[in-house]
Write a structure and sequence with these properties.
The complex is a heterodimer.
Chain A lengths: L1 E2 L2 E4 L3 H12 L4 E4 L14 E2 L4 E2 H11 L5 E4 L4 E7 L2 E6 L4 E4 L1 E4 L3 E3 L16 E3 H10 L12 E8 L15 H15 L4 E6 L9 H10 L4 E4 L4 E4 L5 E7 L4 E7 L1 E6 L1 E3 L1 H9 L26 E3 L9 H23 L1
Parallel strand pairs in A: 1-9, 2-3, 2-10, 3-6, 10-21, 12-19, 13-14, 13-19, 14-15
Antiparallel strand pairs in A: 4-5, 7-8, 8-9, 11-20, 16-17, 17-18
Helix pairs in contact in A: 1-7, 3-4, 4-5
Chain B lengths: L13 E2 L6 H9 L11 H5 L1 H5 L4 H9 L6 H5 L7 H5 L6 H14 L8
The complex binds iron/sulfur cluster (3 copies).
One iron/sulfur cluster binds next to helix 2 of chain B.
């Protein structure tokens, strides 16, 4: 049994930032991470919008912070059962370990939509239909290649895969994928200046500082083509490229076009951990994201005393938003722990 | 021959694989602000010619972009190059230069313009 002041479930950017902030305030924090490595989805990022900062810089800074003497990181440690004992929260892990603390922070994050549910887009059927995460890995390697060895002349990005789509049960907008598509279009042009890049969208949603400017730059400097219309169907050509159909809604005309690679901008869904623990704690809200006590007034609180929420376990957020939310959660936890002492 | 009233409808689909997209590239090289068009339609809404004809700058610009030149020369001839559209464009597209250059490109492609 490990007893600390605060237990953080989830070692992604939100969990780590909260842990660091609390440790700096003198609290003992244990971070439980189910994977081998901390930093969560940031491990799959090559560069970050809007300034193309190398994700590895941000990762190293986060990992450095975790050397704080008040923080203990527990990798390969999945929280399975959560119990409330009078003033304490107890957590049992898959490996049979037990943790206890007066305050518990849920930072279990998100998962990417699995595009195999959109069969018409051909993911899992045609090798050159890939996800945004796979494309990011190509950018990391600095080589964008077609699995069939052809020279990559045309790349398509398709927005809103698994978001804003009643057919998969997700009515909401994932908020980050538009910005990410613009970022990745530019990355594509940096690696393959001769390639034609197309981005298929229903709306381009670039809310936030510098994002609209990034979109503008993608048109002005990188010649990215934007087509307003959702790809309805993907089929293979005889040379294993991808034949794509959509409506060019702005000219009200159907369109067909062939691509070497199709990148699906998969949306954000509640992670398996968020769903499982949310249901166990009875705080699952819309689409199984964790529900905060009050969106406008107590967004880091849950309906349970001493149980706090941070980051994308609540809803889709950009990285800066998730990290800011984590700092705010740390502040609320600090206040809570003070009231316990009185 | 007897006309039975049947005919083969031509495909309406924009085929981007066969379209000549290079023409637009040349125009955009001359008028770089064209690439910034957001397709908001403010130009079309403010256009004097649009008030009396079906002329639609936004849509015709888009069709030109996609290499769909048929019928466009006649459309662009409806424009008086008055520049009103340029005043309202939120992306600072030099619409007059754009229309002028699209006209010139279509002339080179020998697309029929309105008969004088
Ligand atoms: S951010 Fe853009 S791509 Fe993502 S769900 Fe919203 S509209 Fe679609
Ligand atoms: S310049 Fe042409 S398109 Fe623009 S407002 Fe005048 S007539 Fe209309
Ligand atoms: S007003 Fe400007 S941005 Fe809007 S459609 Fe016309 S040219 Fe494009």
């Amino acid at each position: 049994m490990t007893a600390v002041d605060v237990l953080v479930i989830g070692g992604g950017p939100a969990g780590l930032e909260s842990a660091y902030s609390l440790a700096n305030n003198g609290y003992d924090v244990a971070v439980l991470e189910k994977e081998k490595n901390i930093c969560g989805h940031l491990n799959q990022a090559h560069s970050l919008f809007p300034n193309f900062q190398n994700a590895s810089e941000v990762r190293s800074a986060m990992i450095d912070k975790m050397t704080h003497p008040k923080i203990s990181i527990h990798n390969d440690t999945e929280a399975i059962r959560i119990k409330r004992d009078i003033d304490k929260w107890g957590v049992e892990t898959g490996s049979g370990k037990e943790f206890m603390a007066p305050a518990l922070l849920l930072a279990t994050g998100f998962k990417s939509f699995d595009p195999k549910y959109k069969e018409e887009l051909g993911y899992g059927i045609y090798d050159n239909v890939i996800t945004t995460t796979q494309f990011e890995a190509m950018c990391q390697k600095g080589s964008i290649v077609s699995p069939h060895g052809q020279k990559v002349k045309r790349i398509a990005f398709l927005n809103c895969v698994g978001s804003r789509d009643e057919k998969v049960g997700n009515h909401y907008c994932s908020r980050v994928c538009c910005i990410n598509a613009v970022k990745q279009s530019i990355e594509a042009k940096k690696v393959l200046p001769e390639a034609d890049i197309y981005c298929f969208y229903m709306d381009i949603r670039m809310a936030g500082q510098f994002y609209e400017e990034l979109y503008r730059k993608s048109q002005e400097v990188y010649n990215v083509n934007y087509i307003r219309g959702r790809i309805s169907e993907v089929s293979p050509t005889i040379d294993k490229r991808l034949h794509v159909k959509c409506e060019d809604t702005l000219s009200q005309t159907p369109m067909k076009i062939t691509f070497d690679i199709l990148v699906l901008m998969t949306g954000i869904e509640a992670s398996l951990g968020t769903v499982a623990l949310g249901q166990q704690l009875n705080i699952s809200g819309e689409y199984n994201f964790a529900k905060s006590l009050s969106l406008h007034m107590a967004d880091n609180y849950s309906s349970h005393k001493g149980l706090f929420l941070a980051g994308t376990c609540k809803r889709p957020l950009t990285l800066p938003e998730a990290v800011a939310d984590a700092r705010s959660a740390a502040g609320e936890i600090k206040n809570y722990l003070k009231t316990l002492k009185q | 021959m007897t006309n039975w009233g049947f005919h083969i409808a031509k495909s309406r689909i924009i085929d981007m694989d066969t379209a000549d997209l290079g023409v637009y590239r040349k125009v955009a090289a001359k008028v770089p602000s064209a690439k910034l068009c957001l397709m908001c339609g403010a130009c079309t809404a403010s256009c004097t010619a649009r008030n009396h004809t079906p002329f639609n700058l936004r849509k015709n610009h888009l069709l030109f972009r996609h290499g769909q030149f048929k019928g466009l020369a006649k459309e662009f001839d409806k424009c008086m190059l008055c520049g009103k559209c340029r005043l309202v464009c939120p992306r600072g597209v030099n619409t007059r230069a754009l229309i002028y250059n699209m006209r010139m490109a279509l002339d080179n492609l020998n697309y029929t313009r309105i008969k004088k």
